[in-house]
Amino acid sequence: xxxxxxxxxxxxxxxxxxxxxxxxxxxxxxxxxxxxxxxxxxxxxxxxxxxxxxxxxxxxxxxxxxxxxxxxxxxxxxxxxxxxxxxxxxxxxxxxxxxxxxxxxxxxxxxxxxxxxxxxxxxxxxxxxxxxxxxxxxxxxxxxxxxxxxxxxxxxxxxxxxxxxxxxxxxxxxxxxxxxxxxxxxxxxxxxxxxxxxxxxxxxxxxxxx
Length: 210
Prior knowledge:
Elements: E1 8-9, E2 14-15, E3 38-40, E4 48-53, E5 56-61, H1 71-86, H2 97-114, H3 122-128, H4 157-160, H5 167-189, H6 196-205
Parallel strand pairs: 3-5
Antiparallel strand pairs: 1-2, 4-5
Helix pairs in contact: 1-2, 5-6
C-alpha cells in the first residue's frame, strides 16, 4: 500500500532506484492511502525522521547524514520510516521493540521484492546497521539488532500492494515514473518546488492495471 515508486518503486512498491547506487525517496502513503510528503533536509540531525507538520505525517531525510552508510542502507531506513507510518504507528516518538521489528521486516521485504536487496546484499546491509554508540542518535530507535532473515516471509506485502500478473512491465513503467519524481524532489529541495507527488500519481496511473 505505499504504492511506491520510490524506486520503491520500493514496490515494486516504494524505494526502487533508477541507479542502483543512488536511493530515491518518495512514494510513501499512510494507513489510509494518503500521500506522505518526503522532504530533503540537510539540517536534519538524523538520516531519516518522521513527524507531524500542518496536521499530517511527513518524512524528512538528510542524504548527507552518516556519510559512511551504503545506499541500500539509506533506502532501508527510509523504507522503515514509511512502513512505520503505513502501519499506523505514531509519527512522533520512539517505537517499542515489537513495532520497530515489524517496520524493519516490512522495509526489508519491500527492498527484496523491488530488487534493491539482491541475493548476497543482505549481509552487507546488516553489517552497515551495526551502529556505533554515537551513531544511534542519527537513526530511528529503539536500539536493536537487525537480523532480517528472521522476518516472516511476505512481511511487506500488505503494505505495498505488490501486483501479480503483468508485474514486470508494470514495474518498469513505475520505475520510469520514479526518475522524474526524484528530479522534481531535487528541484524542490533547491527551492523550486512543484507538485511532485501529483505528477508521480498521474504518471503511474498511465501504467495501467498490472
